[in-house]
What does this fold into?
Amino acid sequence: MTSPTYPLNVDQPYPRNQWWVAAYSAEVERDLLARDILGERVLLYRTEGGEAVALSGICPHRAFPLEKGRLVGDHVQCGYHGFTYGADGGCVLVPSQSGVPQKSSLRCYPVVERGDLVWIWTGRADLADPALLPDLGAVGLGRPDWACEQHPVCEVAARYTLLIENLLDLSHVTFIHATTIPGGEKVAQIPVAVIETDHSLTVQRKGENLPLNPLLKMQFPEQDGPVHQHFDAEYLGPAMIRTGGAVHDAASGQLLGINNFLHMITPAGPTSLRYFVITTRSFGLENPALGQINLGMGTRIQPEDSAAIEAIEQVFQSGVTLPMEISARVDNGALKVRRRLEAQIRSEQSA
It folds into this structure.
């Protein structure tokens, strides 16, 4: 069986000093919601004041799953023996005795809400700085001048690095999504440039003089001629990748609009993940049909990507001998991201 850290050459599969998406904001209510995040059971709920809370989700008394308990005000009561915990994780009540045991607190994870997402910090609490989140406004989240659609959450039986590499090499669009993404048949042939900054890496594809397909005509009804269209993949950290990009009129160079697919990737464990997708666009806010088209495309695209990387994960776990990995020039961006991830993980281990 392939190491759960493969293709990374490190001892642990993911960085922990990192913000990850735990849930859409609308998912976290006055009910107990359990999510596995980086191999840890996390319990999510809202206080009566509306604040999102994230606690370790297994009762330390006898390992009962706390999502099967109940809320008592802002406290979580275990459904097995009634141990009760405050929103800060502290044990406040053991019904069978007058005090509480030592070391009986639950872990309380730092949480912030940005872009209608609940972000959880899984590392050292003293390092949890919201400034380390991606620039969500730059990709269209939390802005009244952009439209956005939240797609259903998808659970994928594969390691998170497989989804990262799937998204960074959009040449797969020509094959995996041949019938689901209009114009996708041209993506594999578009030249690639890799653009790096301290906080991001973009695998840039700019399709030149592409004919106006029916989807583009619906998005930009005033457009008649060919367009320049970006099929970019921007790595904003292991938790978020942006694909899509700007569309320009080919004749004048005028910007017609920007259409982003935002992919939030949260490892559930070493070989499983939870996949959130939000589409954002800077045009057509008055046309809700465009949002329905994006959501409809997502219902077809996500299962295709999931099936592809789950098939690879099954190969990894089968125990068969793998061939020596080869890479094409188009893989340069993904290989650079591997090195970034390895450096991030190693820096935590050496700290």
In short: Helices lie at 160-168, 173-176, 214-219, 288-318, 332-350.
